[in-house]
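From the methods appendix. Each design record in this collection lists the tokenized structure first, followed by the designed amino acid sequence. Records were kept in a plain field format so they could be parsed without special tools. The example shown here is representative of the layout used throughout.

RECORD:
FOLD TOKENS (278 positions):
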């Protein structure tokens, strides 16, 4: 006999796995009227799991909780009565799910990715790694990444030994940038000062880059790389040292505010320099 969704959810919650109910079709329950379009404010930046302060579950993955009082309380009662399945927030427990949606995607993973714990799905498999990362859909044909700010359907504990999240998976969300026409800034004739040393010019460029990262609606990792590439192309190729470590630190800080690690910032900066032949 299949375990009722609420019973399964309570079992997961007892192991510190944040869970939420799913309706038929693997769809989370919609926001309540008070929270539609995030009118209630939700969680801070929607970056941590937990219920909203409104009296009903909302915000999809961010409604995931490990609190049995919430799971069994009146706010969740109607949702669990209608629930067809249980979902969990992988990033909330430091995991990443590579969702392989068909047989060809599974074959691709076996040829490309390190082995780890696997869970069979209706059409393919979930490969589960230790470590969280940014989520992204359709990174390859039939391949989604579900980790931070995403939910995955609970289909059982799976088989095999869970291994550490490899760089091969992290790299899947970094889209190759469109060809960039490098901006070569000639040194001014007659020994004049490089225009990048004009404080307003360089400051405007760095400020625009910070804003671009801060306002990224999705694909933050790729946005950070493309922004670093653009800054280096426009301000770092004249060879006179206009772009300083202080400027780079500002950009790294902006990226880390959006969830990027110091290592990822360093890698993105290095990769952008390499791409520009610097």
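DESIGN:
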């Amino acid at each position: 006999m299949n375990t009722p969704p609420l019973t399964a959810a309570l079992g997961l919650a007892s192991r510190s796995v944040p869970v939420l109910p799913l309706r038929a079709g693997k769809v989370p329950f919609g926001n309540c009227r008070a929270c539609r379009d995030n009118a209630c404010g939700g969680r801070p930046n929607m970056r941590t799991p937990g219920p909203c302060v409104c009296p009903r579950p909302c915000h999809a993955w961010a409604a995931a909780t490990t609190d049995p009082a919430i799971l069994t309380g009146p706010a969740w009662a109607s949702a669990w009565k209608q629930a067809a399945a249980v979902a969990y927030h992988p990033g909330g427990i430091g995991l990443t799910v590579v969702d392989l949606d068909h047989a060809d995607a599974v074959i691709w993973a076996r040829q490309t990715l390190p082995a780890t714990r696997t869970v069979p799905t209706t059409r393919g498999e979930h490969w589960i790694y230790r470590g969280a990362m940014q989520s992204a859909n359709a990174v390859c044909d039939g391949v989604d990444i579900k980790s931070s700010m995403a939910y995955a359907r609970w289909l059982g504990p799976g088989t095999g030994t869970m291994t550490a999240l490899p760089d091969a998976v992290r790299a899947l969300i970094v889209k190759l940038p469109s060809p960039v026409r490098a901006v070569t800034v000639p040194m001014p004739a007659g020994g004049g000062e490089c225009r990048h040393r004009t404080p307003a010019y360089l400051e405007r460029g760095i400020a625009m880059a910070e804003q671009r990262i801060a306002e990224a609606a999705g694909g933050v990792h790729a946005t950070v790389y493309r922004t670093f590439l653009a800054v280096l192309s426009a301000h770092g190729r004249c060879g006179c040292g206009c772009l300083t470590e202080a400027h780079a630190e500002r950009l790294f800080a902006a990226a880390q505010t959006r969830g990027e690690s110091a290592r990822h910032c360093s890698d993105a900066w290095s990769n952008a320099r390499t791409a520009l032949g610097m």
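APPENDIX NOTE: The chain is about 35% helix and 15% strand.
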